[in-house]
Amino acid sequence: MGFKCGIVGLPNVGKSTLFNALTQAAVAEAANYPFTTIEPNVGEVPVPDPRLDEIASIAKSTDVVPTRLTFVDIAGLVRGASKGEGLGNQFLGHIREVDAIAYVLRCFADDDVTHVEGRIDPLSDAETVETELMLADLESLEKRLPTLEKRIRGQDKEAKITFRLVEAALEQLRDGKPARQTQVAAEDRDLFERLNLLTSKPVLYVCNVDEASAANGNTHSDAVVKKAEAHGIGVVVISAKIEAELAQLEAGERDEYLSELGLTEPGLNRLIRAGYALLGLITYFTAGPKEARAWTVSQGTAAPQAAGVIHTDFEKGFIRAETIAYDDYLACGGESGARDAGKMRLEGKDYKVQDGDVLHIRAAN
Length: 365
What we know:
Layout: E1 4-8, H1 15-23, E2 41-46, H2 50-59, E3 63-65, E4 68-73, H3 88-95, E5 100-107, H4 122-153, H5 157-174, H6 189-193, E6 203-209, H7 219-231, E7 234-238, H8 240-246, H9 251-261, H10 267-278, E8 281-287, E9 291-298, H11 303-310, H12 312-316, E10 318-324, H13 326-331, H14 335-340, E11 345-347, E12 358-363
Parallel strand pairs: 1-4, 1-5, 3-9, 5-6, 6-7
Antiparallel strand pairs: 2-4, 8-9, 10-11, 10-12
């Protein structure tokens, strides 16, 4: 399943540096002027999960395959992007293709790296990005109204519901609030998502701090954290410069460097996990002598659809899922022990896969 998290921000906030470190490949040129990144760069990254290594050790798996997220580095935004300023049209087009958005906010001072607006104010930067996205959504929705009204006159029932959703979203946007704050009934969620609004996507704030602030943050990042908590938005404090340096080190050197900085793990691990959580994703596992593998599904996914992530034939021919909870798998020493202890459950088509489940899918040929 292709889950994409877009990395956005004003020029010179460290966005491309962060992306380079994230993907451990210098595919996004980082330079001290706006619009270095013109086309979106895409990188797949493994989601760190120590449970997979534990399962692989017990199953004596030859190969270990983690689940992955796709991060998209999108060209820097400027004021007026919603009207096509700078690379506005390309930016807005690329951001519509992602499932969630990480706002990289500059929380460091550096005379050698100019800020596009001449000051360090991450809250204002976040507001600039959000405002441009809201303006683009406003224009998009207002253009749809005449067509919807015409369809309603033709007794189109779906158009009536869509029109109501558009008006509700417009009310939020005109009040200076993102579309994700629109109250939408569960039965209308699919139609609302089909509006493909930029500000309906989940958001994560990424505070890019200086090296000295990597462990505990600073006054700039503290202000962002306070705002994020007030609005129910996820936040990660990270030093892109440190992460870029870590990406060049061997594992042993990395651990030593982290210890010197007072850090227990790379900030990128936290960023990846935050992006995973932001998208409402969970992990289930399959394990055997040949391979232990993590699979990504959305929370609430039924067993047949989860099986379909492995192969579409498994969904079509789904019979049952032999299921062991992660803790039981460890406690019982693997599949055989769990079966003998009565900890293996036979789950059918209505079962909702849980985070950490170890599954053995049975399907008809």
